[in-house]
């Protein structure tokens, strides 16, 4: 069996920031794509609640839903591609009659446009910019790289 890669293009705002959501507190924030794609970062600290988690756990539910739909569509296409010739041969033998009903393929959903409600904040400790809601910033923001002091 081989590995299959399915890609979903995650929308960025005008300044190259990607919207993310914490698994723990469910709050959203934005990190620059260069920070997010830096492979030396194995985990991030949520800027809102300060809890660390693997980098791949901060995807927004909309992104995960789009990826899930693409995977289901791919699976249905593969089932049809692999089984249809075998079923056709069985039906030609005359001993067995079979049919293959593959679920209708769902259209791929357009992903959201990131909200413009976020305000840019700079963490001097690691030199990282974070976009967060004004209310979250008033409470204080943690550095997503080191988890350090609140702004």
Write structural notes for this entry.
29% of the residues lie in helices and 17% in strands. With 151 residues, it is of the alpha+beta class. The protein folds into 2 domains: 17-60 and 112-139, no CATH class; 62-108, no CATH class. The longest helix is centred in the middle third of the chain and has 33 residues, at 61-93. The chain is elongated. It starts with 16 loop residues before the first strand and ends in a 12-residue tail after the last helix.
Main sheet characteristics: 4 strands, antiparallel
Low-pLDDT regions = none
Strand order of the largest sheet: 1-2-6-5
Oligomer: single chain
> Span between N and C termini?
49 Å
Order of helices and strands: EEHEEHEEH
Provide the residue-averaged pLDDT.
86
Taking Cα atoms only, what radius of gyration do you get, to the nearest Å? Answer: 22 Å
Discrete helix count: 3
Share of helix, binned: 25-40%
Count of all domains:
2
For this entry, give a set of tags:
151 residues, alpha+beta, 2 domains, 6 strands
